[in-house]
Design a protein that fits this description.
The structure holds two protein chains of two kinds. Helix content of chain A is about 75%, strand content about 0%. By secondary structure, chain A is mostly helical. Chain A has a single domain (about 25-335), classed as ABC transporter involved in vitamin B12 uptake, BtuC (Orthogonal Bundle), CATH 1.10.3470. Chain A starts with a helix and ends with a helix. The relative contact order of chain A is 0.15. Chain B has two domains: about 1-75 and about 165-250, P-loop containing nucleotide triphosphate hydrolases (Rossmann fold, 3-Layer(aba) Sandwich); about 85-165, no CATH class. Chain B is built from ten helices and ten strands. Chain B has a six-stranded mixed sheet, sandwiched between helices. In chain B, strands 2-1-4-5 form a four-stranded antiparallel sheet, with helices on one face. The radius of gyration of chain B is 19 Å and the shape is globular. The chains are: A mainly alpha, B alpha/beta.
C-alpha cells in the first residue's frame, strides 16, 4: 500500500499510450504533457510565491522560436538539435532573469499588467522576427528522437508519437519530482512565506527580492523547456501558439487544477485540454444527428464558465476536492455516532 | 547592546519620532510603553529595517543598522513579532517554525532541487519541535495554522521568531487579544525565553504584564522619550502620570 502512490501513476503513464494509441489521441497526450510543464513552473511562481504572470506564453514561445530558427534551416547554417536546445533554454532563462529583476518590484494588479504587456511584446517580436516567417510562422523544424531517428524508428520500431510521448513525460516526471523537492525545501517555504507576508518573511532573514527573482527565473526555465519540446514535436511554430490567450489559458489550467499544489497543475491541464477535445467529439456527434454547430468557437466561453464554477465552488481547484471529500467523511461519521 | 541615537522619522507632515534616544540592556526584558500614537510601532519598524530613519543612527553590537534591509538585520540577530499577526496561514505550525530557521540552513538550490537536503530537513524539524516544546505548543505542531485560535497564533509567532535564534527579539503587543489567564501564561514564557540568553524588547499596553516582568522601561510620548527606568521609578514619575492621566 505504501508504494501505491508511486506505482499507480507509473502504471497510468504506461497504460495511457497503449489505450489511446491513435495519432490524434497521442497528440493530445503530448499536448497535455508539454502544457503541464509550463503550468508546473507557473505553480511555483503563482501557487507558491504568489506572484502572478500573464506573460508566460512569451517565454514558452521565445525558446521555441530560438531552437526552431537555429535548427530548422531558416539561417544560412543549421545547427544540430543537441546544440540548439541548450542554447534556447539558456538564452530564454537568462532573459527571464533579466526581466524579473525590474518587474518584480511591482505587486498585485500592476505585476499582472506588466507581465501581460511582456507577453504582448513577445508576440509582436514573434510576428516581426527576421527569419521568423511572420504571422504564418514556419515549419521544417527537425523532430527530436530519443536515440536518434534511425535507431528509434527503424530498429526499436517506436513511431513518432510514442517517441514524443516518452520524451515529454520523462521530462514532465523529472520536473514534477524537482517541484516536489523544492516544495519540501527551504526554498519552497521561503516562496510560501513571501506569498503570505513579505514583511514577516524578511524579518526571518529571507531576502525577498532575491527569492522572487529566483522563482520567476525557475518558472521561466520550465516554460523554456516546454517551448523546446513544443518546437521539436510539432515541427513548426506560429505566433498564434504563443499569444496572450495562451498565457491566460495556462493560468486557468493552474487555478482549475489547484493553485499551490504540485500535482494540481497537471490535473488542471489534463482536464481543460480533455474538455476542449471532447467538445470536438461532441460537435461531430451532433453533426450525425443533423445539428451543425461549431462548438470550438465557444471554446473561450466554456473555459470562462468552468473557471467561474471552480472559483465559486472549488476555490482550491480540483485537488481541493480531496479535502472536501475528507470533510464529508468526517461529517458523516459524526452524524453516525450521534 | 542596542543604542538608538537621535533618531527621527516623519510621515509627510506628521513627526512620528523626533530625536529619540534610548538603549537596550543585554539579557533583560526591556519594555517600551506610551499612549496611542506615541511612535512605539514606528520605532520597531525602524529597528527591523521595515522603515528607514530620516536622521540619527541605530547601533547594534557596534554595527550600524540604520540603512540595512530587514533580512540583513535578521542575519545580525534581531527579529520580531507583529501586532497584527503575520502568520503564514498556508502552512502548518511546524512549517511556520521551520521557516524561521531559514538562516540556519546551508543547502543551496541544487541540493534542494535534487532532494539532497533530507538530513538537514530532519535536523530542522527536530530543532523546531524543541522550540515548540519550550513554549508548550508541541500538540499543535501538525495543524494548519489558519485554523488555530488567535492566542495560540501569537505564541506560534514568538516560536517562529525564536527559531531564528536571535540575540534580540522584538515583541509588538504580544498580549493584545489575550485573556488575563493567557497573559499571565505569556509573562511566564517570556521570562523563560530570557533564560535561554535572548534579550527581549516589548511593546505592550497591558500594564500589569509590563510592570510585572520588565527590568527596564522606556516611556514615549509624541515621538519623544519622556522617562526611563525600572517599573517602580516609572510608576512614580510625574511626566509619565501626566502623559497617561492628564493634568488636573
Amino acid at each position: 500500500m505504501k508504494y501505491l502512490k508511486y506505482i499507480l501513476p507509473i502504471l497510468i503513464l504506461i497504460l495511457l499510450p497503449l489505450i489511446f494509441n491513435s495519432p490524434m489521441n497521442m497528440r493530445i497526450l503530448i499536448e497535455i504533457g508539454i502544457f503541464s510543464i509550463i503550468v508546473l513552473g507557473l505553480n511555483l511562481l503563482m501557487g507558491f510565491a504568489g506572484q502572478i504572470s500573464l506573460g508566460h506564453a512569451g517565454f514558452f514561445g521565445l525558446s521555441a522560436y530560438i531552437t526552431g530558427i537555429l535548427s530548422g534551416g531558416r539561417l544560412p547554417f543549421t545547427l544540430p538539435v543537441f546544440f540548439t536546445i541548450p542554447i534556447a533554454i539558456i538564452l530564454t532563462t537568462t532573459l527571464c532573469f533579466l526581466i524579473a529583476i525590474p518587474i518584480l518590484k511591482l505587486k498585485g494588479h500592476y505585476l499582472a499588467m506588466a507581465t501581460l504587456s511582456i507577453g504582448i511584446i513577445f508576440f509582436t517580436i514573434f510576428v516581426n522576427m527576421p527569419f521568423g516567417g511572420g504571422f504564418d510562422g514556419f515549419a521544417g523544424i527537425p523532430r527530436l528522437w530519443i536515440f536518434g531517428e534511425y535507431f528509434t524508428g527503424k530498429i526499436l520500431k517506436i513511431n513518432k508519437y510514442l517517441n514524443g510521448y516518452i520524451i515529454t513525460y520523462l521530462v514532465l516526471v523529472f520536473l514534477l519530482w524537482i517541484s516536489r523537492n523544492l516544495e519540501k525545501s527551504k526554498f519552497g517555504r521561503a516562496f510560501m512565506a513571501i506569498h503570505t507576508s513579505e514583511i514577516a518573511a524578511s524579518t526571518l532573514g529571507i531576502d525577498v527580492t532575491r527569492y522572487k527573482v529566483m522563482v520567476f527565473t525557475i518558472s521561466g526555465l520550465y516554460a523554456s523547456i516546454a517551448g523546446v519540446l513544443f518546437a521539436h514535436f510539432y515541427c513548426g511554430v506560429t505566433p498564434g501558439d504563443f499569444g496572450t490567450v495562451k498565457s491566460i489559458t495556462f493560468v486557468t489550467m493552474l487555478v482549475i487544477g489547484g493553485s499551490g499544489s504540485v500535482i494540481g497543475g497537471v490535473i488542471g491541464t489534463a482536464f481543460l485540454i480533455t474538455v476542449t477535445y471532447s467538445l470536438e467529439h461532441l460537435q461531430d456527434f451532433l453533426r450525425t444527428l443533423g445539428v451543425t454547430v461549431s462548438l470550438m468557437d465557444y471554446n473561450i466561453f466554456i473555459y470562462g464558465f468552468i473557471f467561474l464554477l471552480v472559483l465559486i465552488f472549488l476555490p482550491d481547484g480540483l485537488t481541493g476536492l480531496k479535502n472536501k471529500f475528507e470533510g464529508f467523511k468526517f461529517w458523516r461519521e459524526r452524524v453516525k455516532s450521534k | 547592546m542596542l543604542k538608538v541615537n537621535n533618531v527621527g522619522k516623519s510621515f509627510g507632515g506628521l513627526k512620528a519620532l523626533t530625536d529619540l534616544t534610548f538603549s537596550i540592556e543585554k539579557n533583560m526584558i526591556n519594555s517600551i510603553i506610551g499612549p496611542n500614537g506615541a511612535g512605539k510601532t514606528t520605532a520597531f519598524n525602524l529597528l527591523t529595517g521595515v522603515l528607514k530613519a530620516d536622521c540619527g543612527e541605530i547601533i547594534f553590537e557596534s554595527k550600524d543598522l540604520t540603512n540595512l534591509k530587514p533580512h540583513k538585520i535578521a542575519e545580525l540577530g534581531i527579529t520580531r513579532t507583529f501586532q497584527n499577526l503575520q502568520i503564514f496561514s498556508n502552512m502548518t505550525v511546524l512549517e511556520n517554525v521551520i521557516t524561521g530557521m531559514h538562516l540556519r540552513t546551508k543547502s543551496n538550490l541544487l541540493h534542494a532541487m535534487f532532494g539532497l537536503n533530507k538530513k538537514e530537513e530532519k535536523k530542522l524539524k527536530e530543532r523546531s519541535l524543541e522550540t515548540l516544546e519550550l513554549l508548550g505548543l508541541k500538540k499543535y505542531a501538525f495543524l494548519k495554522s489558519g485554523s488555530l485560535p488567535f492566542g495560540i497564533l501569537r505564541q506560534v509567532e514568538i516560536a517562529r521568531a525564536l527559531a531564528v535564534s536571535p540575540k534580540l527579539i522584538l515583541m509588538d503587543e504580544p498580549a493584545a487579544g489575550l485573556n488575563p489567564f493567557e497573559t499571565e501564561e505569556l509573562g511566564v514564557k517570556i521570562k523563560e525565553i530570557i533564560k535561554t540568553g535572548v534579550t527581549v524588547l516589548l511593546i505592550e499596553h497591558d500594564m500589569n504584564l509590563v510592570m510585572d516582568i520588565s527590568d527596564k522601561i522606556t516611556v514615549l510620548n509624541f515621538g519623544q522619550k519622556i522617562a526611563c527606568g525600572n517599573p517602580r521609578e516609572i510608576q512614580k514619575n510625574p511626566l509619565v502620570l501626566k502623559a497617561y492621566l492628564g493634568e488636573d
